[in-house]
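Forum > Structural Biology > Help requests

Title: Can anyone predict the 3D structure of Rad51 protein?

Hi all, first post here. I have the sequence for Rad51 protein but no way to get a structure on my laptop. I'd be grateful if someone could post the structure tokens.
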Amino acid sequence: MLLPSLEDGITLLDVDGSRGVPILQSIVLDHLLMRDGPAFWVDANGHATTTTLSRIAPSQRLLDRIHVARGFTAYQHYGAVCDLPTAVNHCIQESTTGDSLGERRSTDCDGETSPHTPSLIVAPAIDAQYRADDTLGEAHAETLQARALAKLATYAEGYDIPVLVTRSKRDEFAAPVETAADHYLECEQTRMGPKISGDDFETLLYPVDDSAYYQTTFAYWRQLLAARATQVGVEPATPSTPTQEGVGTGVTADGETVSATADPLLDAWTATGTGGR
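Reply #1:
Sure, ran it for you. Structure tokens for Rad51 protein below:
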């Protein structure tokens, strides 16, 4: 599994180092591939960019299931959140008419969702418009943001669906977003690509061109071998904790004892007297 599955309730996604538009959109599209029904997206700061969505979406029909409303001010954003039930009802009415019902085919993979009711609500940068609106005092802005979060929590419970949110900054103003979240995902950039971690998920594998996979962390091999040891009845040994300086020592071809790190290529690159730096 390269992308996490979204559970019912509010999920907060934090992406280090960027706005994380491709990451957010990939998670949304992956969810729609696995669930039937439309997604309702209350956008802020241009996260619902059609350029990126069209580039990564495997099908145009998938994009047709995403309904976007944009809020360019705090009041517009809050109004779009409040109007979500009206948009949902309008979508259901359109999708259940005779013509639409004959054209729409269910693509549900678990057989438990409807092609007419919402499968996901997305609200990226949920704090952005409330912190940026100069017409609002700080207390009023915080209140309006809290009401928007309360509305989203109500929708998550009422429709029994996930609500995926992000925040523009991690600070005191956006702290209520984390408080309101039922689940938390964090994405960090690594040399091999974005790594997503959560309570029940961690990216451990990345695909390569020949459809093979390679591990991103030693944790993958540790989990794999621990599971195999349990299967054959061998008690897995508790690995020693490496120090910050390295993972032990090694002996070179000249008989010199040197410290070793977790990266043997780095050891060779930085070794003295061997052409290294």
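Residues 138-159 form the longest helix (22 residues). DSSP finds eleven helices and eleven strands in the chain.
Shout if anything looks off.
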